[in-house]
Design brief:
Helix content is 28%, strand content 34%. With 98 residues, it is α+β, with helices and mostly antiparallel strands.
């Protein structure tokens, strides 16, 4: 997962790595979570099955993180159009002490 993280960084895409329960996760963007079982990388491809309505997933061999990163970058670009970066909020004013 670290190699995929580095490949995404080289494409200008930041992500966060998480580990636990026998899986590695890479949080990239809203609706773009990549996970790996050590054999392949998997992520939601943005489509739903016409028959079941369930999400369809993309997969790429874990042995080729550079190619996987290019595919994930394409999905990231799609998501950036539908889920742009939210505007920064001004800090909340704290209540005056009594």
């Amino acid at each position: 997962m670290r190699r995929l993280h580095a490949e995404l960084e080289s494409l200008g895409i930041t992500s966060d790595i998480h580990h636990g329960h026998g899986a590695a996760l890479l949080s990239v963007w809203v609706d773009l979570l990549v996970w790996s079982d050590g054999v392949r990388f998997m992520w939601w491809n943005g489509e739903h099955s016409a028959r079941t309505g369930r999400r369809k997933y993309a997969a790429h061999p874990a042995g080729d993180p550079a190619a996987a990163a290019r595919h994930i970058a394409a999905r990231y670009a799609d998501l950036r159009t539908t889920h742009p970066t939210p505007p920064l909020r001004a800090p909340r004013a704290e209540a005056a002490p009594l």
